[in-house]
Amino acid sequence: MTDVFTPEQRSAVMRRVKGRDTGPELAVRRILRAAGIGYRLGGGGLPGKPDLVMKGRRTAVFVHGCFWHGHDCARGARQPKANAAYWTAKIDRNRARDAAARAALEAAGWRVVTVWECGMKAPDFAVRLVAEVRDQAAAVSTPASSSA
């Protein structure tokens, strides 16, 4: 299937894809703020530049879009038909970078919480996220933070 946009239009669409302050990221921030959990933005020089950092808890939170980070859900498993080789390589690089960042943070003694876009649709997502950030995850099983 060919692209429905001209190259110039596609370029304009892709320029509007945000890397910060995305809808899922803002939702996670609202949930944590409502629970009274403080955080900093931007990663503060940590490997992988986490979306949210809680230094006192030594917790780093990554909010991942399923497509961009190659999650194993329906949206993340979808393969682009146009320029497939480029997108497959890009998503593979993203996954490798995510794994390296996670390993580096864990080696430095940080807890890493990965929030997947698809996991945010669960009705109990907010409760599970807050429990995991507060390090009560052992009592609450959370698919929102699968380490894929």
Explain how this protein is built.
The chain has helices at 7-15, 23-34, 74-77, 84-107, 125-133; strands at residues 40-41, 52-54, 59-64, 111-116. The chain has 148 residues and is α+β, with helices and mostly antiparallel strands. Strands 1-2-3-4 form a four-stranded mixed beta sheet, with helices on both faces. The longest helix has 24 residues, at 84-107. The model is unreliable at 138-145 (pLDDT under 50).
Record the SSE blueprint.
Blueprint: H1 7-15, H2 23-34, E1 40-41, E2 52-54, E3 59-64, H3 74-77, H4 84-107, E4 111-116, H5 125-133
Parallel strand pairs: 3-4
Antiparallel strand pairs: 1-2, 2-3
Taking all Cα atoms into account, the compactness measure Rg is 16 Å
> What is the N-to-C succession of helices and strands?
HHEEEHHEH
Q: What is the helix tally?
A: 5
Main sheet specs = 4 strands, mixed
Low-confidence sequence ranges: 138-145
> How many β-strand stretches?
4
* Helical proportion, percent range: 25-40%
* Average residue pLDDT: 84
Strand content: 5-15%
Shape estimate = globular
* Structural class by helix and strand composition: alpha+beta
Strands ordered across the widest β-sheet = 1-2-3-4
Termini separation comes to 29 Å
Q: What quaternary form is this?
A: single chain
